[in-house]
Amino acid sequence: MRPYLRYQLPADANVTSLTVEEAPRTLALVKSGNECLLLHKVYAGRDGAGRPGNYFVHLLAGLEPTFGPDRAICFWRYQDALLWRTSDDPGHGVMLPPIPREELERRLRKRWERAWRPEAVPRGPDFFQLSESERSAALEFLPLLLLAFFDQQQHSDSLQAQREAEKTSSQIRRGGREVLAGESQSEADIPLICLVATPDQAAWLVWALARLLPPVLRPRLTFSTYEESGDLSSSRLIRRTFALVATCPAQPQHAATFVSERFYRGALAFNLFTGLHSSPREWPEVRDFVELACAAFRGGDLSFIEQLHRDLEGGASTIDGFLREYQRWRSNQGRLGLEQVVEIISRYPEDFSQLMVRRHILERLCDDQQGEALLDRVLPDLSQLARLRLEQRRLDHSLVLFENEVRRQWQEARLSAAARVRLLLTLASLGAGRELLKEAIRALLDDPAVYPVLLARPDRCSKLLSFAASALTSREAEHYREEVGRLLQGYRSWESCRSLLSLDLPPAWREMRLRLLLSVLEKLLRPTDGAPLPLEERDWQRLLQLLDQAQDAGSRAVALRLAALLLRDQAAPAFDLLIRCCQLSPPPTENEMEELLAGSALLRELSDLERGRVAASYRRELLHRYSRQLRYYAPVYLQMRLPALEELCLRLFTLLCLTSTAAEMEELLSLFFAQASNSLRERLLLVWPATETRAVASLIRAGAQQGDLFFLRTRPGVFFYRKAVASLPFDEKLQLLEAWLRQQPDPLDLHVLLTCSALTPEEGAWLLEQYGPIYLARPDYARCWELTHLTHRYLLSLTPERLRQPETRSLLKTLVAPKAALPDSLILLAWSWLRVAEALEQRQTRPELEKALDYLRQALDDQHYAALSKEIANKLKLKHLKPGQKKPQGKQYALEELKPEGFPGQDARPRGLPWLGWRLPWLGRRGLRPRR
């Protein structure tokens, strides 16, 4: 701060006779970083020792960066002890207490009203102490100062651009010293505006410049009303800090020799005492602005200049940018033609900040002769402005002003119905506020005079409906349902209806739109010659979206009729249309689906393919497209459980079987099986070549993992299951059985599973040891006789070596439980083996061992029992076992007498189904019917 606190009296001042009031005072505005400083410097006379040259400086810091010269000059000669101090206060040190911002703003507001009221021009506010001659001299130099300011700031902009260009990567790599040196040289090249005038004249000129300069350039005007003349040419700080600096002699008669002629060449100098001045550079645009501004200032009416300031506020911040906008502003002050208005909207949206431009545009839009042509040409550009206003703050402010002017015009003028429609479309295209749009839309829909205008222009009607749909609430949309129905009567051709397809209408209006589209398309459809509908690809996509929106009952019925009509067209996306119909709530019934497909072009095309009436190349193309779409849509179709859709999928599958590869068909078959009903699955298996058991095996695995019992409960499923399982190796067969058994099928399903699996004794033993404890412990599985048969074979094939395994002993403990799903004879046999296992494990006889061996002697053959008794004798160290009663020759085993109608012998193989072998009269499920 210290360099700004210097103060020196003029060189010709007589310090012995100079009074405090005669000495020049300084008010300076300084920009320092992110704040502004305001300095007030006055001569304070003699110090305590009686020496002259004493001065007092009061610095006001902490002002916001936007604090400009228009506000700073209001504190000139402010007589208030709270603001400017002119002498030391013993109660304070160097730092004064802060001034409350509210107090500062209140004092500024009072001065502002005096300085900026219209009556202050051209004399200026009363706090400037000027004589008439001094004011006239200052007013004479005002145009030159304006030219000098533009010349100075043009140099500043050019040097700033040059400085930015010089900051290249190569200079930065050399340490940036060249750049710093260039910046210092650039600051010295910017000319300083120097005034040789009284401080009050300098302050008055600062006030006049602040009144005339546009707001975007006004913050550049930093100033000081007095600095000693010797500092003006030597102090680099002054040149870098201020745009305008004033100095003055103590005696006016010394003004001619106060500064040298070199001073006028080195700066933009203006001597108000002698009339000498430098010649600032000028160009036509600046001269025009200066003449316009100064003429208005001298005339005492700045309304035109103030309107210019408002129009260009927030615009370009450079001199060249301001001059370009000023030229546009001047050219727009006359009456604008239609082409000029179109050019402004499309190429110069920044001109919306100008009041005259907004007035001309509004006038053209309200003109019934030219308004229609203008709106047709600029509607796309207005929509572009709506997007730009989100990014450009100035444009958004200008458009808000335009919207308010439109509202006033709407309310105050008697506009025609067509003009009000145009104004509404303009507001909506510009993205006006929701409340303003809602107010305008209600006014139009409530006015009967508007309907003929909209009925004559369906495109305008569509835009109105689009804006109404986004602005109105659901209740308001329901209120205007009848009015919207009247407006839809104006759509008589498909070209006019096309604009309705993309509209997101409220639910209350959607059914009316569907009915309109249906009636128009019915007139276009000519079934005699089969001419296609005039629909583009974009139209099909939008029609599908409309079908997605059909939710209520009324819309559903119309949507089905519209879909049936569209399906007759050869170019219709049939699969997409059927999907939309399936997604309706409630979904279509069987009769409705048959009606949809009855006259469809898809079925006609399928018939031609089946009869070979299609060329080979086109046939391949069609089948490839069908295959791709079927993979995507078939799951939804099959979930509907509608015979018409199942028949369609089967026909497509049959056609694809003839042309697709085995891998493709296996993928498609798996996809169908995941969602198809059992009846369709049976037909698919019959269509599928019977030799392709690999694909069927994969279907069986998928069904086992998902718990799908198709292959256990249908005759074709059982047939293909036996055929596929017969070709599987041991490991894969056991994995498949594990997958089924983890689903815990019911007893009859388990019986079919075990019967068709054709298990060997080893496979049956493994199965029982793994899953026997789960199923045999449940009494309801007593109906699964194949499980009983496996248990029978397992018990008859046990050996002492197998009894040592933990799995075997665990299974035997399950079999002897009271609720085991086995006949008593098998339970007794399992009990016998368990006693033998305990005796072998403990290597000692058990109390019940003799009874167990006696029962085993009756159940086992002689060779098997002899090996068992020998092993027991060796382990228990017995010399011999007590011989039991021998079995009679030719008699069945005692166990076989307990089986219902007799089990087949050990060497016989059971046949599990009535139609595949001999009949099982004990099978509980009579006839395996397909289940839906």
Could you describe the 3D structure shown?
The strands form two sheets. A four-stranded parallel sheet has the order 5-6-4-7. Helix content is 59%, strand content 5%. By secondary structure, it is mainly α. The longest helix is centred in the first third of the chain and has 35 residues. Among the domains are: 290 residues, no CATH class; 131 residues, no CATH class; 148 residues, no CATH class. The chain has 45 helices and seven strands. InterPro entries: GAP1-M, GAP1-N2. Pfam families: GAP1-M, GAP1-N2.
Strand order of the largest sheet: 5-6-4-7
User: What proportion of the residues form beta strands (DSSP E)?
Assistant: under 5%
Helix fraction? Answer: 55-70%
How many beta strands in the DSSP annotation? 7
* Radius of gyration of CA atoms, rounded to a whole number: 52 Å
Please work out how many helical segments DSSP would assign. 45
**Could you list the spans in which at least 5 consecutive residues all have pLDDT below 50?**
179-185, 888-932
Structure class:
mainly alpha
Termini separation comes to: 94 Å
How confident is the prediction overall: mean pLDDT?
85
Most strands sheet? 4 strands, parallel
Tell the overall outline: elongated
